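User: Show me a protein chain along with its predicted structure.
Assistant: Here is one chain, sequence first, then C-alpha cells.
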Amino acid sequence: MSLAVDPVTLLAFVPAALALNLTPGADMMFCVGQGLKSGPRAALAADLGIALGGMVHVALAGLGLGALVAANPGLFDLIRWIGVAYLLWLAVQALRAGARPASAPVGGSARAFRAALVVNLTNPKVILFVLAFVPQFVDPARPVLPQFLIFGLVLSLGGLLVNGLAGVFAGRVGRRLLGSPQLARGLGYASAGIFTTLALRLALMERS
C-alpha cells in the first residue's frame, strides 16, 4: 500500500511552506490586531480560527470546489465583499471598544476565534493561493484529496507557530500599555487600522 504523499515531495514542501509562513501577510496582521485589542489568548484563538479556515480551503480545493469558486467571478466577488464588510465591522468594533483589559473574559477568545474563521473563509485570495501553490506538489497518480489535506496540515501547523508567536508578542506589548487610557485608545486605533488595511487589501485584490 503506497503512502498518500511521496516522502521526498513532503520534505521539499515543508521548507517551502515554512518560508511562506514566515512572510508577513494578512493572517499574521490579523493575529497581531487581535493581540493588541484583546490580549495573547485572543491572538492564539484567532490563530486557531485562521488555521481551521485554511484547512477548509484546502479541503474544498482538493474536492474541486475551490476551482469552481475561482472560476466564477460572481461567486468569487460575493465572498470577497462579504469579507471586506466583516473586516470593516471589526474595525468599527475596535474603535468603539478600544483595547480590552488584560482580564478580558473568556468570551473574548471565542469571539476572536469566530472572527478569524469568518475572515479566513471570506478571503478568496486564500482560494487562489491554495490552487496556485499546493497542486505543484500533488502527484496525480495518487489520491488527490489526502495529498491536499496533508499539505494543508503542514501549512496550518507552520502558520499556527509563526502567527501565534507574533500575536502573543503583540498581546503582551498591548497588555503592558493598557495602564494608560491614552495608550489603550491608541491600541484600539491600531487594531482598527489593521482591520481596515486588510479590508482595503481584499477590496483592491486582483483576481489574477
